[in-house]
From TrEMBL, chain A:
Keywords: Cobalt, Metal-binding. This is B12-binding domain-containing protein. SUPFAM superfamilies: Cobalamin (vitamin B12)-binding domain (SSF52242), Methionine synthase domain (SSF47644). The keyword Metal-binding applies. Gene3D superfamilies: Cobalamin-binding domain, Methionine synthase domain. Residues 92-219 form the B12-binding domain.
UniProtKB/TrEMBL annotation, chain B:
PANTHER family: RSBT ANTAGONIST PROTEIN RSBS (PTHR33745:SF1), RSBT ANTAGONIST PROTEIN RSBS-RELATED (PTHR33745). Residues 136-246 form the STAS domain. It comes from Jeotgalibacillus alimentarius. This is STAS domain-containing protein. Gene3D superfamilies: STAS domain. Pfam families: STAS (PF01740).
Length: 219, 248
C-alpha cells in the first residue's frame, strides 16, 4: 500500500506534522480508529523493524520513528478520540493495560488502550516494562474487569505464562488478553487454549470479535 | 600485525563461515568464549547476521548480542574482509542510549504511577463530595410541624438533585407544615440551581407544606426575583425572629 510506505518514510524523517496530516486525512475520510491503527500505524512500524533487519536503518532511526509514532498516537487521543467519547458513558467495564517486565515496545498496547476507550471502557494504561507485582497491586486497588498484557521480544514473551498464572490465581473473574509480536514468532510456546478467561489476540479482527462477544454475553 | 589485545575495543577474527579464529581478551571478557560468532548473537538477530556477514560481506551492521551476564545489548559490528578472514570490531552502542532511555522510562513510570494515584484519589474524592452534598442539607426538625433546612455550599442543580428525594420523603412521611430554607451559608448560586430549588419548593406546596426562605445575601438577590411567583412562599430577613415566634 502506497500510503503505508509514504507514512513509514515520514516516521523515519521524524516529521510529526506530516505524520499527523496522514492520520487526520484518514479520519476525515471516515476511516475507523481500528483501521487507522492496524492498517496504517502498525504496518508502518513493522516495516521499520524490517528495515533494521535489512540493514537499511540503525536503531537510532528506529527510535526517532517510534517517538514520532508515539506523538501521533498521543495527538490522536486528544484531538480525535477524547472529543468523540466525551459525554458518552464508560460503562463497558474497567480495563488495565501494560507491557510485561523489560518490554519497552509499548506502541501496540497504547493503540489497544485507545480502542478500548473508544468502545466505552474505563481504561488505565500502565505502559512499558511493568513487573508483575505492580500489576497485582494496581489490580487489587482498581479492580479491573479486563487485564491486557503485551510482549514484543521473544525473551519477554517467555514471561507471559507466569503473569497469566499469577493473575489468574488472584483474580478468577478477570478476563485476560494477551497480545504482541512475540505470538507470531515460531519459537514461542504459549498454550493457545489455556482457559476461557484467557484470550490471545493477534489480529485486529480477533479483538473486534472478542469485544462483540463480551457485549453479547452481557459482560 | 598488531596483536588483537592491543586494540582499544573488542576485536575478533572470523572466517567466512563465521567461525571464530581468534578473539581478544576484551571480547572474551564481554561475550565469553564461543566457537561461532553466531553463538554471541541474540536469536532474533541471527538471521540478519547470516545474511549480512556470511552471505554478503557487509562492512557495518547493527546486531543484538548476548553479553556474558545474559543481557541483550545493541552493538555496531564493523568488519574488514579479505579472501579467507574478516577482522571484526564490536562497538557497544546502547550503553549511553540505554542509560538515557532508562531515565526516560523511569520518569514515564513515575508519571503513570502518579496518574494512577490521582485517579484513585479522584474516586475517593467523588465519594466524599457526594457524601458532603448529602450532609449539606440536613433537615432539622424544629417542632413536629416545622423543619429547618440550612443549605451549605454552592446552590447548583447537583446539590438539589442529591437531596431532593430525601427531603421530600421526610416532609411527606412526617407531615410537615412548614419548611424553612436557610441560604446563609450558600456561596455561589446559578440560575439553573435556583430553578431546581423552585421546583422542589413547588413540590412542597403539593403536600400543602408552606416554605420560608431566609438568609438571603445581596449577591443572591438577582437570582431569586423569579421565586416570588410561588404561592405559599415567604421571605424573612431574620431567622431569629421566626424562631422566637415558634418557641414562644
Amino acid at each position: 500500500m502506497e500510503t503505508v510506505k509514504n507514512f513509514t518514510d515520514v516516521l523515519l524523517d521524524g516529521d510529526q506534522d506530516k505524520a499527523w496530516e496522514y492520520v487526520i486525512n484518514e479520519v476525515d475520510k471516515g476511516t475507523s480508529t481500528k483501521d487507522i491503527f492496524f492498517g496504517l500505524l502498525t504496518p508502518a512500524m513493522v516495516e521499520i523493524g524490517q528495515k533494521w533487519q535489512e540493514n537499511e536503518i540503525s536503531v537510532a532511526d528506529e527510535h526517532l520513528a517510534t517517538t514520532t509514532c508515539d506523538f501521533t498516537l498521543a495527538r490522536y487521543k486528544h484531538e480525535v478520540l477524547l472529543p468523540r467519547i466525551q459525554n458518552k458513558p464508560q460503562d463497558q467495564g474497567r480495563a488495565l493495560f501494560f507491557c510485561v517486565e523489560k518490554e519497552e515496545h509499548d506502541l501496540g498496547i497504547r493503540m489497544i488502550a485507545q480502542i478500548f476507550e473508544e468502545n466505552g471502557y474505563e481504561v488505565r494504561l500502565m505502559g512499558a516494562n511493568l513487573p508483575v507485582e505492580f500489576v497485582l497491586t494496581m489490580a487489587v486497588k482498581w479492580e479491573p474487569d479486563v487485564i491486557g498484557m503485551s510482549a514484543s521480544m521473544l525473551k519477554q514473551g517467555e514471561r507471559v505464562p507466569s503473569y497469566i498464572q499469577r493473575l489468574m490465581e488472584r483474580f478468577e473473574q478477570t478476563e485476560l488478553l494477551i497480545g504482541g509480536r512475540f505470538l507470531s514468532l515460531p519459537d514461542q510456546l504459549l498454550d493457545k487454549a489455556d482457559d476461557s478467561k484467557v484470550t490471545i489476540i493477534q489480529e485486529g479482527s480477533e479483538l473486534s470479535a472478542w469485544m462483540a462477544a463480551r457485549v453479547e454475553g452481557g459482560k | 600485525m598488531i596483536h588483537l589485545d592491543a586494540m582499544p575495543m573488542p576485536v575478533v577474527i572470523i572466517d567466512h563461515a563465521l567461525n571464530i579464529i581468534e578473539s581478544s581478551k576484551k571480547t572474551e571478557k564481554l561475550l565469553g568464549h564461543a566457537a561461532s560468532f553466531l553463538d554471541w548473537v541474540d536469536d532474533e538477530s541471527r538471521e540478519k547476521a547470516v545474511r549480512f556477514m556470511q552471505d554478503k560481506h557487509s562492512e557495518k551492521i547493527e546486531l543484538n548480542l548476548v553479553t556474558i551476564d545474559g543481557a541483550i545489548s545493541l552493538f555496531s559490528v564493523l568488519m574488514t574482509w579479505d579472501d579467507t578472514f574478516a577482522t571484526v570490531a564490536l562497538q557497544k552502542e546502547d550503553h549511553r542510549l540505554m542509560q538515557l532511555m532508562g531515565k526516560v522510562t523511569e520518569h514515564k513510570r513515575r508519571l503513570e504511577e502518579s496518574d494512577m494515584e490521582l485517579i484513585l484519589k479522584k474516586n475517593e474524592l467523588e465519594q466524599s463530595l457526594k457524601r458532603i452534598g448529602e450532609l449539606s442539607t440536613a433537615a432539622i426538625e424544629l417542632t413536629d410541624e416545622i423543619v429547618l433546612i440550612p443549605l451549605f455550599g454552592d446552590l447548583t442543580v447537583a446539590l438539589i438533585h442529591q437531596n431532593q428525594q430525601r427531603i421530600l420523603d421526610n416532609i411527606y412521611v412526617k407531615n410537615i407544615d412548614e419548611v424553612i430554607i436557610d441560604l446563609q451559608s450558600v456561596g455561589v448560586m446559578d440560575a439553573a440551581g435556583v430553578e431546581e430549588m423552585i421546583k422542589m419548593i413547588k413540590s412542597f406546596s403539593l403536600f400543602g407544606t408552606a416554605c420560608t426562605i431566609t438568609g438571603v445575601k445581596p449577591e443572591h438577590a438577582p437570582f431569586l426575583h423569579q421565586v416570588h411567583m410561588i404561592q405559599k412562599l415567604t421571605f424573612i430577613n431574620n431567622l431569629e425572629d421566626k424562631l422566637s415566634r415558634i418557641v414562644y
